[in-house]
Please model this.
Amino acid sequence: MVKYTLQELPNEMSDGKRIVFPKMQPYSLHDYETVIRHMHDYAGSFGEGTIRAVFDALVSVMASWMPMGHNIKIDGLGVFSLSLGFDETSPSERAEMEDTDGDPKTKYRHVCIKSINFKPDARLLQALNSVASFERGEDVQEPQKMKLSREERLARAKAIIEKNGYMMLRDYTNATNQSRSAASKDLRQIVDDPNSGITIRGSHSHKVWIAKSEGV
Model:
């Protein structure tokens, strides 16, 4: 019997509501060779070499046609489609990631393929549910909450500025273990506090946080 755990969504993802969802605990990972062997045992008339050739052909078809805007549907299995995102390795995207004020709709963003979506066939889900049996494992796992106080976060920001002479948004997110949006909001409040000792310089992709000069 497969076990599952109940996990709770972070507040920023659930609008403050307590949302719990089940997550399966995987027993093992069947690698490529194991899948080939199982398929051969299931349909012995097909040799393992033939099964590998079919998989290789499927991968080639997906690599050739999906980047051209075609989804792949396999009856009984499901539909494969591309998931796009912004290429964080490109210089333009790295600059955009530091821009907390600019309108991303008006800027060039370098797009790349991030992943492949899979929507299973209804018949496959029905077949899986016909043999599935689940048992609850541990108690509800709450999301990891930020444990640093405001004073501790401020101290880390000052330490970064003292070491480098300035601080970028990604430096603060890494140091305080926050999301970009939460860190950006946190820094706005810090800058607005006249006693924080931190101010901002530049704008958009050139925005940095620095120590406030005395008397400013």
